[in-house]
Amino acid sequence: MITGFWHQVRAVVDRDLLRERRQGDMLWITIPFGAIALLLIPLAIGTDAVLLREIGPGMYWVIVMLFGVLVAVSRASRETLPQQDASALLGLDPAAGFVGRTVSSAIFLLIFEAVVGIVAIGLYDISIIGIGWLALTLLLVAAGLALLGTLTAAIVNSSSAGTALVPLLVAPLSVPLLLGATQTYDGLQGGYGILSWVLLMVAVVLVVAIIGVLTARPLQET
Amino acid sequence: MEPQVRIRRWPWVVIALSLAVAFTLSMISPADSVQGDLVRIMYVHVPSAWLAYTAFFVTFVGSVAYLVTKNLKWDRIAAASAEIGVYFTGLALSLGMIWAKPTWGVWWTWDARLTFTFIMFFVYLGYLALRRTTDDPIARASRSSVLGVLGAIQIPLVHFSVVWWRTLHQPPSLIKPDGPAIQDPLMLTALIIGVIAFTVVYVALMVKRIELIHLDERRLQIEQSIERPVAGEAVTAPELGAT
Predict the structure, then answer these.
(1) A50 CB-near residues (< 8 Å, 6+ apart)
(2) Is the interface score ipTM higher than 0.90?
(3) Which of B9, B85, B131, B167 has the most CB atoms around its CB within 10 Å?
C-alpha cells in the first residue's frame, strides 16, 4: 500500500501512463483522428485561404474539446467496478485517485493540443501572437477538460448507459472553456484585454477541481 | 408497512387559478407601440425564463443539501425541480423563437443569451438522462447531486451573458439597478403578476412531482417485495441411490 496523498497521485498517473504506453489507443489513434478532422473541414467548407485562416483557431479549439470528450469516454469505459473495488481495498484515497486520473488525462490532452496545434498552424496558416498567454490557455483548457472528463466519468461510472451519456454531459459543460480559449486568442490577435477570459477559465478549473475532490469519496461509495 | 402517499388535489386548483390570472392580465394589458400584440408572448416567455433559473437554482440547493445530509428528501426536490426547469427552459426557448421570427426576422440567432440558454437546457437534459440510468436511489442521488452542483455553473453565465456581451437579446427588463425598463404601469403589473403566478405554478408542480416520485418509489418497493419464480426452481436434485 502506498501512503501519502501525492505518492498515491503519482502511482495513479504512472499506472495510466503505463497503460497508455502499452495500448497507445489514445495517442496513436485519437491524435491522427484529430489531424484528419482538421483536414476534412476545408474539404467541406471550401479551400479559401483567408476564410480558413479566420476559422482555423476556432476549429482547432472545437476539435480539442471533442478530444476531451473522447478522453472522458475512454476513462468511463476503462474504470470498471472491480478495478475501483481493488483500488479501494488497497487504501487508495478517492481524492488522490481523482487528482491522479485528472493529471494523466491533462498530459494526454496537452500532447494532443501540441501535435494538433502544429498541424493546424500548417494547414490553416494560423498566426501566433502572445506565446506565453497561449501556453497558459492551452494548459487551462487541458486541465479544465481533464477535470470535467474525470469527474463525469466518475459520475456515470458503473451505470449501464454510462459511456453513451458522457458526451452529453461533458460537451455542454466545457463551453466556458471553449469560449475562454477562443476569446483569448481573438483578444491577443486584436490587441484587446484577455484577462477576464483567462480568469473565466481559471474559475472553471478551480470550481470543477473543488467539486471533484470533495465528491470523490461519495461517488466511490455508491 | 410504509405509510401511504398522500394525494393532494389543491395543486391543480392553484395551477388553474394562477394561469387564469396571468392569462387575463396578459390579455387586458395594452399592446406595445412597436411590437403590437406580439408583446403578449413576453408575459409567458419572461416568467418561463425566470422559472428556469429558479428551478435550476433549487436543483443546485437540493443537490448540495443531499451531498451534505444524505437525506433523500433533498434529492427528490432537486430532481423534481430539474424536470420542471427543463420544461420551462424549453417553453422559454420555443416562445422566444416564435417571437423572434416576426421581430428579428429569424427563428434563431447566435445571440449569447439564446446560445447559453440552449446549452443550459442540454446540461439539465443530461442530468435527467443520468437519473434514468439506475434504479438504486442512493447511487442515483449521489451521482446526480454532483452533476446538479456542476451544472449550476451555467446559471450565472446565462443570466449575465446579456451584460457581458453586446448582443441582440435585450438586457434584464425587471431586475435592474435603475428600476424596471417597462414604463407602462399596466404592462409592468401584468408582467410582475405573471412572474408571481408562474412561481406559484412552479410550487404546485413541485408538490405534485415530489408526490409522484414518492409513488414511484413505493411501486419499486412493492415490485421488489413480490416473490417471483426463480429459473431452475422447478428442478429438484436427483436422489442418490434411487432406483
Answers:
(1) none
(2) no
(3) B85
